[in-house]
Amino acid sequence: MAGVVAAGMTVVAIPVAILLVLWLTPSAAFMMAQETSVHPPVEFGRDRALLEGVVTWVEGNADCEDYYVHLPERFAGLSYGGLVSCGDDEVFIPQWAGIPDDAGGFWYCPSRSPEGNDMWGMICRDPVDLGDGWWECGMR
């Protein structure tokens, strides 16, 4: 009789385990996505050459018609989610993003201030001039 009970418990335990995994999967996936989006803070002075590499890559390879541009792996850690946004002579390299639609980060705008530019839903106000076309906005 013990063998029958043990076998019955196994049959019940497997579906319960599957349901538990299915129930936890969305939460686990969300948590994993959050963890992979976090990266060490980029320091402009220390990482400027790498940020300039992002701009060079964007200028030569990115389709700026898309709102988000995926960076190649070598640059992905320099922006939130490995994404940038770009436009006419401008590149936005986000350092953080919020819910529902805010972000802040570095701008490369060599011809003007990014004041008033869209940062994934938040408008750039009072950008800090870092020199040579580089700006910081929404980072305070």
How would you characterize the overall build of this protein?
By secondary structure, the chain is α+β, with helices and mostly antiparallel strands. The chain has two domains: 1-38; 44-137, no CATH class. Helix content is 41%, strand content 25%. The protein has three helices and eight strands, in the order H-H-E-H-E-E-E-E-E-E-E. Strands 1-2-3-4-8-7 form a six-stranded antiparallel sheet. The chain is globular. Mean pLDDT is 79; it is low at 9-38.
Structural class: alpha+beta
Gyration radius, in Å:
22 Å
Helix content: 40-55%
The total of beta strands comes to 8
The H/E string reads HHEHEEEEEEE
Beta-strand percent range = 25-35%
Strand order of the largest sheet: 1-2-3-4-8-7
Spatial shape? globular
The pLDDT mean sits at 79
Integer count of domains: 2
Q: How many separate helices?
A: 3
Give the N-to-C terminal Cα separation: 69 Å
Q: How would you sum up the major sheet? A: 6 strands, antiparallel
Poorly predicted residue ranges: 9-38
What's this model, at a glance?
With 140 residues, this protein is an alpha+beta fold. Helix content is 41%, strand content 25%.
